[in-house]
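To the wet lab folks,

You asked to see what we're planning to order before we commit. Fair enough. Below is the target structure as tokens, and below that is the sequence we designed to fit it. If anything looks off to you, flag it before the synthesis order goes out.
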């Protein structure tokens, strides 16, 4: 269940307060007083056998005595009473409760007994151990908070009651109102994902703020967060930032991918802005709530005080923001309106005596520069000009908080003198901040949120491309053989064979069982290579360099034998009981100008498989220049991962250092991502170092750990927090003389839509979208093709010969994942040939396999062709309950199988 029956909680018409009390200082008294103080207009029924009257209302001894059916119950009775109360309420017809009571522990079985009592009635429980629920628009305060929050358009979700009450107190002092406040408590039933789904469709909620301590169901949470963040700003604080990082014995990746970094990556991928402190929460929400996401986030500054501008630049750089480089044309234009001693750079210092006219001219010119994405306008008070008049000049350019279409952030420094100027700016809907640090932080909010929104719109395919090498049989054979031997670690030759099977280049590796065989192997390789490398092979050693198990720069076969003998001696010194399995002999790869990189994967205990990228080599953990991301990746997401490291910028080249082969590095990351998707048995992996230069990328070493018990489990990996492209749902169909390929939609398919719509009659488009449409903006096409496979699906049919788009079938599941609405459109020139039937059948099979119970389609009553096909297909058709122009087609589904892509919930 997700949002089923939750409407009873947020918009109840009647309320039972079970445990209501008249005793001074009791929880039951505070709750009933809060309910009355906010002015709830429906029936209020106190329940407590100790009283005949509470707060001037008749009090009932039992649930059975209540004269009506409460939409919502608020429960503040002892823990042992809760399961029975939930059962009684459910039998009575109530479908939601806020359980404020704490102490329903798993040890005593009370929590599970409560859930068992709720299950037969689809009864929803907020809590237990919660401060309560507040919906100001419904005049509902079912809580024990100390203030009555004012109504507004920000929703607050908090896993901590103390944080919720603190934020309510702070908001009251800053004139901030709420659409809903939900203290989630122990989340026995209703969790953050349920509330995100509910708030995503709430017209009274403009933005959502969250305080999180745990994410119990990451795939459900990320799916809900992605859905909500597409529609409105979502801002989150996640506590526990400095918890000890998870350690993995076998890989560097496990040691470097601390839990908090994974939370960052997950929220970023969901389009959620993460901030660090409670004081930032509402400021961040207000900032990003004003503007649309930006493609780029370069900041330009106009100021009358050079020092203030430099302070802002320092903080912008601290926050990872990019400065705009003004064009030569902009500089020339500014020269015409500014004094000769202006800064002639960004920040644009227009000098302390700047008049209102100078402010207006400079602001307008800088805003129009193509490199300016975010405009910061600052003012320092002087005796030479009026801050108020400067503010009015800037305000005169404002168009709903933007100038020349660019977001504007203002900072009028000072207190008494600046106050009127700030008010003038705010009246013009311009965002205003008190200090250079504040305005720089606001710019970072907008930049980070824009990047998160860009990542949100990426839904990678599970295949890196049609030309990518993916020899999954070879990999599966190795994994099964290693598992059959009872091993968890692949040896180096096995690991390199695995990554080579997915297109990552590796040097030739010969395995030798003894120093003598090492000599012969070296002789063979030295025919084609100037030097060779000898490496230890032993299951007892995780990192060969730690025990001197790698010898480089070997020029002769005899030296290779001596190197092997030296390695044997070192191993005995390190661990006399360690078993030597042999030696790996490889050509010495010498790329003097190559960068050493690390690629890896490990398992986060919450979000499952993660990918790490950064500076590699033996000092990887000391340098610690890495970033993490959630799979699956595509080229765009992989490129973003690279850019979040220092070495990523070095790979672009500098001075006489040519750029590294970016495509080769991206391909390696996407290959790693694909292996994670395809093989659930892979627990962790290091590819270290991966050498990258202008010639390409080659992996010199690799370590892979598997779970032997999962060796036979087929992909896609069900532990992924983000559901990958369902490759198992591709198929070919032949209809008469035409052949089509039906497959799930991909982000790149947006390019196919314009030609498709050009060949689809306007009336067919009207029937599909229930209204005429003359155009489809690019952003709409992006939204149609970049979907979350966890809750929606679109299949496209492509003509096999031309590759042109022939038809689209779409499915969007409700948050409960029981019912889904479908849509269908076939290109006009291809109608009547059976393609619509094939697409609809494919959609039905997928919906059944995905666990949905019913498909529904809404159509215009005049759409006789669709009605005819639906009836033949087995749909029942009825009149739409609220619109006589529409009809609803419904099809009950039989459970199916998902062809290698079963649902994980």
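Sequence we intend to order:
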């Amino acid at each position: 269940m997700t949002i089923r029956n939750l409407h009873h909680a947020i918009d109840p018409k009647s309320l039972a307060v079970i445990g209501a009390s008249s005793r001074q200082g009791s929880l039951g008294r505070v709750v009933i007083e809060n309910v009355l103080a906010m002015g709830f207009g429906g029936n209020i029924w106190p329940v407590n056998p100790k009283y005949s009257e509470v707060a001037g209302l008749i009090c009932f001894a039992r649930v059975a005595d209540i004269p009506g059916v409460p939409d919502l119950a608020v429960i503040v009775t002892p823990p042992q009473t809760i399961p029975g109360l939930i059962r009684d309420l459910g039998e009575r017809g109530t479908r939601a409760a806020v359980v404020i009571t704490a102490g329903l522990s798993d040890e005593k079985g009370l929590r599970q007994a409560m859930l068992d009592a709720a299950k037969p009635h689809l009864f929803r429980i907020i809590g237990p151990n919660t401060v309560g629920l507040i919906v100001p628009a419904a005049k509902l305060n079912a809580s024990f908070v100390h203030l009555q929050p004012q109504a507004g358009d920000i929703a607050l979700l908090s896993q901590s009651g103390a944080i919720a009450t603190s934020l309510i107190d702070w908001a009251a002092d800053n004139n901030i109102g709420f659409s809903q406040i939900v203290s989630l408590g122990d989340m026995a039933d209703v969790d953050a994902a349920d509330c995100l789904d509910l708030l995503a469709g709430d017209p009274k909620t403009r933005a959502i703020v969250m305080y999180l301590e745990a994410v119990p169901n990451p795939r459900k949470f990320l799916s809900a967060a992605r859905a909500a963040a597409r529609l409105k700003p979502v801002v989150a604080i996640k506590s526990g930032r400095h918890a000890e990082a998870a350690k993995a014995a076998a890989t560097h990746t496990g040691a470097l991918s601390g839990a908090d970094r994974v939370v960052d990556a997950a929220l970023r991928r969901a389009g959620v802005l993460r901030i660090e402190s409670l004081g930032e929460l509402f400021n961040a929400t207000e900032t990003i709530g004003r503007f649309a996401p930006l493609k780029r986030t370069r900041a330009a500054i106009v100021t009358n005080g050079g020092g203030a501008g430099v302070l802002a630049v320092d903080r912008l750089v601290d926050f990872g923001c990019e400065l705009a480089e003004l064009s030569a044309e902009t500089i020339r234009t500014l020269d015409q309106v500014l004094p000769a001693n202006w800064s002639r750079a960004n920040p644009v210092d227009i000098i302390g005596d700047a008049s209102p006219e100078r402010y207006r001219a400079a602001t307008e010119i800088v805003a129009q520069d193509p490199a300016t994405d975010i405009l910061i306008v600052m003012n320092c008070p002087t005796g030479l000009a009026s801050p108020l008049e400067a503010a009015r000049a800037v305000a005169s350019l404002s168009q709903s908080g933007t100038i020349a279409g660019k977001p504007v952030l203002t900072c009028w420094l000072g207190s008494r003198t600046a106050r009127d100027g700030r008010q003038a700016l705010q009246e013009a809907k311009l965002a205003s901040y008190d200090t250079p640090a504040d305005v720089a932080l606001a710019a970072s909010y907008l930049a980070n949120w824009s990047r998160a929104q860009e990542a949100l719109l990426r839904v990678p395919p599970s295949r890196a491309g049609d030309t990518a090498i993916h020899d999954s049989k070879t990999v599966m054979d190795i994994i099964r053989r290693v598992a059959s031997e009872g091993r968890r670690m692949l040896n180096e030759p096995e690991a390199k064979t695995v990554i080579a099977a997915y297109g990552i280049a590796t040097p030739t590796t010969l395995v030798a069982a003894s120093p003598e065989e090492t000599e012969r192997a070296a002789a063979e390789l030295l025919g084609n290579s100037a030097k060779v490398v000898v490496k230890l092979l032993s299951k007892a050693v995780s990192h060969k360099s730690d025990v001197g198990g790698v010898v480089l720069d070997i020029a002769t076969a005899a030296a290779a034998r001596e190197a092997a003998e030296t390695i044997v001696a070192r191993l005995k010194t390190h661990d006399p009981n360690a078993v030597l399995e042999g030696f790996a002999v490889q050509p010495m790869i010498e790329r003097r100008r190559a960068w050493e990189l690390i690629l890896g994967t490990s398992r986060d205990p919450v979000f499952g498989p993660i990918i790490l990228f950064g500076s590699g080599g033996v000092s990887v953990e000391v340098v610690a220049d890495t970033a993490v991301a959630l799979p699956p990746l595509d080229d765009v997401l992989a490129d973003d991962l690279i850019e979040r490291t220092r070495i990523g910028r070095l790979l672009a080249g500098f001075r006489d250092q040519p750029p590294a082969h970016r495509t080769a590095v991206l391909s390696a990351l996407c290959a790693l991502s694909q292996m994670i998707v395809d093989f659930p048995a892979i627990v962790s992996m290091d590819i270290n170092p991966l050498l990258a230069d202008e010639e390409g990328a080659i992996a010199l070493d690799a370590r892979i750990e598997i779970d032997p018990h999962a060796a036979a489990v087929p992909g896609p990996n069900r532990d992924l927090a983000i559901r990958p492209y369902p490759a198992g749902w591709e198929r070919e169909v032949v209809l008469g003389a035409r052949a089509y390929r039906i497959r799930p939609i991909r982000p790149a398919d947006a390019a196919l839509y314009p030609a498709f719509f050009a060949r689809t009659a306007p009336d067919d488009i009207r029937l599909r979208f229930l209204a005429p449409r003359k155009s489809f903006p690019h952003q709409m096409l992006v939204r149609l093709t970049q979907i979350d496979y966890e809750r929606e699906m679109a299949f496209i049919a492509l003509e096999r010969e031309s590759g042109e788009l022939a038809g689209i079938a779409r499915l969007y599941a409700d948050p409960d994942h029981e019912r889904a609405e479908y849509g269908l459109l076939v290109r006009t020139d291809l109608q009547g040939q059976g393609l619509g039937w094939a697409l609809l059948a494919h959609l039905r099979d997928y919906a059944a396999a995905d666990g949905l119970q019913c498909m529904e389609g809404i159509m215009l009553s005049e759409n006789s062709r669709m009605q005819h096909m639906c009836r033949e297909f087995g749909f029942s058709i009825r009149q739409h309950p609220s619109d006589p122009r529409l009809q609803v087609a419904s099809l009950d589904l039989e459970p199916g199988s998902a062809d290698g892509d079963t649902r994980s919930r």
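Structural context that might help your review: The chain is about 35% helix and 25% strand. The longest helix spans residues 436-456.

Thanks,
Computational group
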